[in-house]
Amino acid sequence: MSVKGFIKFALLAAHILGALASPIENVRLITCIPAHLLIIVFGTEQRADDELVQTPAGLVPKSNVHAVPEGARVHQSPSEVQIIASNGTVIHSRPFTKSAGPLKKPPSSNLARRTLQSGYVAYAYWENTGSQPIAFFGTNWNVPPTPSSWDGQLLYWFNGLVPGDFNGILQPVLQYGTSPAGGGQYYAIASWWLIGNNVYHSSIQQVSPGTALEGHMALTGISTSGGVTTYSYSSYFPGYSTPSISASTTGVLNWAYEALEIYTTASTSDLPSGSTDLTAVDIKFNDNSHLSTIPWTAISDTTDGISMSVISNSGTNGHLRITY
Q: What is the DSSP secondary-structure string of 163-190?
């Protein structure tokens, strides 16, 4: 869902499967390779006993996933990533590295469960190549019906922003199932920020089927010090204070995504029925301008009958649809 180092894996996947479908496969793990073939693990210093957990950024060593307390923010400099409390105290620090871990096989106990493609199964993407950075990206959707089957599946819906070096992703996420942020046999929302080899998340908040959600990301500031430019962003759901995250990074987020991501999903009955409409899709630039249309590229999982379609490519009131 993952860093620039994954490009080597994506190119390997291209040789294995014949073609690289889209830039997302340079960004996320097991996007084009089903989980029963190969997975990638973050981090170059993963302990042998470090459990792998399923995040919106893919399978990650548990020790690389960090909760961000309410009011704190995540700051990435060229050399480290910190969680800084609201009073300015540094409460977490990790070296910043763009390297990814080695190819690994998944645990054998998971193999039989993953009969549907894992990772991104229906998504759309667009790259901003203009001179003005994306300052706002919003999408509305309703929480889907509860799936008819419970097999321990983990489902993620989100809009997201990705830097040009594919070394991170900011996401306001709806989940069904249990993620490293928490959860269970119910829907919940949280914000996530992947940067380098580490993944950061807010607290989660449970939501009910039919609830109207707005996933927003905003550029809140640009500053330059010592020749280094830093971009500050926030990810949030209006009306909910807990599932938000603030992050600053040296990379501008210029790729936009809309996605459904699934793990440990045994059959289509583990998914909601019908479709999910992603509406009021609005992308605004730092000079308050908009494009009249966004040329989304939509990718579907035709084998499993899960699709992403563009109903309207309006730059201020777009509409995409995920059909299960």
A: ETT--EEEEEEEEEEEETTEEEEEEEEE
Distance CA 158, CA 140 (A): 10
The pLDDT score that the predictor gives to residue 165 is 87
CA 192 to chain centre: 7
pTM: 0.83
Which residues touch 188 (CB under 8 Å, ≥6 apart)?
174, 175, 181, 182, 204, 205, 206, 207
Q: What is the pLDDT of residue 49?
A: 57
C-beta of residue 319 within 8 angstroms of C-beta of residue 312: yes
**CA nearest to 263, candidates 200, 192, 179:** 179
| Residues in Cβ contact with 170 at an 8 Å cutoff, skipping those fewer than 6 apart | 160, 161, 162, 191, 192, 193, 217, 233, 235, 245, 247, 253
Beta strands in 17-153 (DSSP E): 39-40, 52-55, 58-61, 65-67, 73-76, 80-84, 90-95, 103-104, 119-127, 134-142
- Which pair of tokens denotes residue 195? 């940067």
> Which domains are present in the chain?
67-97+119-323 (2.60.120.200)
- How far apart, in whole angstroms, are the C-alpha atoms of residue 96 and residue 88? 20
**What are phi and psi for residue 98, nearest 5 degrees?**
-95, 0
In 3-state terms, the chain is what percent helix, strand and coil (to 5)?
A: 10, 50, 40
Residues of the chain with pLDDT under 50: 1-46, 99, 101-115
| String of DSSP letters for 61-78 | EGGGEEEPPTT-EEEE-S
Taking residue 111's Cβ as centre, other Cβ atoms within 10 Å add up to: 12
In Å, the largest CA–CA distance within the chain is 55
